[in-house]
Design goal:
139 residues; alpha+beta; GMP Synthetase, Chain A, domain 3; 3 strands; 50% helix
């Protein structure tokens, strides 16, 4: 009688699938279309946040450092760098509360380039703080 237990290492394809595709730390290359749309969203999100959401940012300098978009273009993760603010988490939560407003303004800007405006998720980009910390440690 054959065993019903599935061995993930039974075939090279299955092993590659588990190690590469299901690995959350695996960095996939974006297609040209994803790269173009990421740059478009990055530019438009920067303008929207800096110019049209001044009531949310309250004088803080907000920079959209990177936008990652899913292959089906349904979700975009925007990484924000926040300066000239005392509490970055409070400002990030304020921006997250206005996600639907930001998405609506983004939709009016990209309506001729995209059929569906992607869902937006905002994250704090602390890479510049990390670089400053490393720089201070090396001094």
């Amino acid at each position: 009688m054959a065993s019903l237990h599935f061995n993930p290492f039974s075939s090279p394809f299955t092993y590659a699938y588990l190690m590469i595709i299901k690995n959350p730390y695996f960095c996939r290359m974006e297609t040209k279309r994803q790269e173009k749309i990421s740059k478009l969203l990055q530019q438009d999100l920067s303008e929207i946040i800096q110019m049209e959401l001044r009531h949310v940012t309250r004088g803080a300098m907000v920079t959209v450092t990177k936008v990652h978009i899913t292959p089906d273009l349904s979700m975009a993760k925007a990484y924000l760098s926040l300066f000239a603010t005392k509490d970055k988490e409070v400002l990030l939560e304020g921006i997250k509360k206005h996600t639907s407003e930001i998405r609506g303004k983004l939709g009016s800007r990209v309506r001729h380039q995209l059929r569906v405006v992607p869902e937006l998720q905002f994250f704090l980009d602390d890479s510049l703080d990390y670089i400053d910390n490393i720089d201070d440690l090396l001094k």
